[in-house]
Amino acid sequence: xxxxxxxxxxxxxxxxLAFCAVSAVVLYYVESPGRVKALVEQSISRATGTECSIRxxxxxxxxxxxHARGIELIDHAQWFYLEIPELVTELxxxxxxxxxxxxxxxxxxxxxxxxxxxxxxxxxIMDQPASTGFFTRVVRGLVGLLLFQDIRxxxxxxxxxxxxxxLGDLLLNLxxxxxxxxxxxxxxxxxxxxxxxxxxxxxxxxxxxELLVDRAISIRRPEIRGSLNSEDMTFSTPLGHLExxxxxxxxxxxxxxxxxxxxxxxxxxxxxTLKSRDGSASPPLKMHFKAEGxxxxxxxxxxxxxxxxxxxxxxxxxxxxxxxxxxxxxxxLNSLAMEMNLRTLWPLLPDLFELNPSLFSLAxxxx
Length: 367
Known about the structure:
Structural class: alpha+beta
Number of strands: 18
Order of helices and strands: HHEEEEEHHEEEEEEEEEEEEEHH
Mean pLDDT: 78
Number of helices: 6
Strand content: over 45%
Low-confidence stretches: 6-14, 19-25, 120-128, 362-367
């Protein structure tokens, strides 16, 4: 027997032994429902770093389905609490061998709630970027070849979800979270949002938040593409007030590096008012902002490069801005180029900043 044939025989024997072992494990857990529940709880706990508990769990292998009640994920150190009253899902494998898809034929998730409080720096939460070495790529390739190469959602009923999060001085509330599938092969997530500071000096409402993400998530490719849209937003601070604000963000998220690449960011409003110290407001201004950049969830760094800001015919600016939260929030503004219409801007300065200059001096290079 040649060496090549011996190698093939040994490989075949190893695969057969692995198949028998897996079959024995599956049969053992099929005959022991209580152990399946404990295994699922332990697996979720290890994967998420939380304490997972499930009150009731039932499942079927033909058709492949799962029904769980009373799901709770708790992390006391991070003040994280996720509650799912009931989860129903039905799955199937579709497509030819080596190109199969794991299809979610039915998903029911209602009235779930998520509460977080005073989360630390993003890098600490994300721990470390996922490994992208040779072994990881091999495992992904084998999963895609032998099991399924992507996960696709064909039917979903998600409604009544809400999220409450405390981010330092800011309080974020998302309510009425619902999911539906549109004709563009995307998952559509909609909700109402509100952001405010504990001192009530910062307040933002987002009545129409819409998130679109790909319906199919690839096992081999780590990228997830999506877009975020919102209309009729309001934003208020001691410095000014924004009404009828609309925004759109298009992004690509890399699960390995945990970097969110912002391919397009846009904000527009025709009703921006600036407040002076005595409380009076400026005439309404039009604002247009667009940028590209990225958000590194591991290192806590965000950058807009380049950005473009325009306020009526008062001011137009371009440049690069970077925010770093490694220790404390640090914002750097670079390569700034600005054009100002002093004839229009000058009459606003006394009202906005209580200035009454008798002499004005400007040094430097201006165009």
